[in-house]
Design a protein that fits this description.
The protein is of the alpha+beta class. The protein is built from five helices and six strands; from the N terminus they run αββββααββαα.
Length: 206
């Protein structure tokens, strides 16, 4: 199936579920949508795209950790380096068990890992497996995997201050998602850095 056929099908499936869709200019992709999921004020932004010269659909989302939570993680790392290493290890295992692809952006500490600053979750589906059920289940799985980490961060390091913290990898020239419109800090951050603030209530989705 050609990329243009996949694009038309995916657009129809997403809009049919009432999801907000915006097109993003991307010279590396045959098409690239920004999709709000779940379709509520607490939804996060997901990238849905097909890389050029690949028979592949990729869904991904980046979450930027709150500055206050990063401060608490730094305190944990300083007070109990072994405990902080164990928390990061368990987070990596949790993501691996969720069967999604993941990247953790950890602060560049001196001699020890810094705070968790952002995480990127993604899942590929090759064109011969792209169906409406697969696309929607992929969004759902990524959302629940994000939610699991958000639960854990809020439980371990508090609600934060409602402001996304720094990401060392981006400051040093690494790839950085372009921001969407900034929402109120009293609600979950719904740009494609995917930060979350003090008003986020994960219990709505669990």
């Amino acid at each position: 199936m050609a990329a243009r056929d996949i694009e038309e099908n995916v657009r129809n499936w997403l809009s049919g579920e009432g999801l907000e869709i915006r097109e993003r200019e991307d010279p590396r992709a045959d098409f690239h949508f920004l999709v709000r999921y779940p379709p509520t004020k607490h939804g996060h932004l997901f990238n849905v795209l097909s890389p050029k010269e690949r028979n592949l659909l990729v869904v991904s989302s980046v979450t930027q950790v709150d500055a206050g939570q990063q401060d608490q993680m730094t305190k944990h790392a300083n007070d109990d380096p072994e405990g902080w290493e164990e928390w990061l290890h368990e987070t990596r295992l949790q993501l691996t068990r969720s069967h999604v692809d993941w990247v953790l952006h950890v602060g560049h500490g001196e001699g020890k890992p810094g705070p968790l600053q952002a995480f990127n979750l993604s899942m590929p589906t090759w064109f011969d497996g792209v169906t409406q059920n697969e696309v929607m289940q992929t969004l759902r799985r990524l959302w629940l995997s994000k939610l699991s980490i958000i639960h854990e961060i809020k439980f371990s390091y508090g609600p934060g201050v409602g402001k996304p913290g720094p990401v060392d990898d981006w400051a040093k020239g690494g790839p950085r998602p372009e921001p969407d419109t900034a929402p109120s800090t009293k609600e979950v951050e719904t740009d494609d850095t995917g930060g979350f603030g003090t008003g986020f209530d994960p219990s709505e989705w669990a």
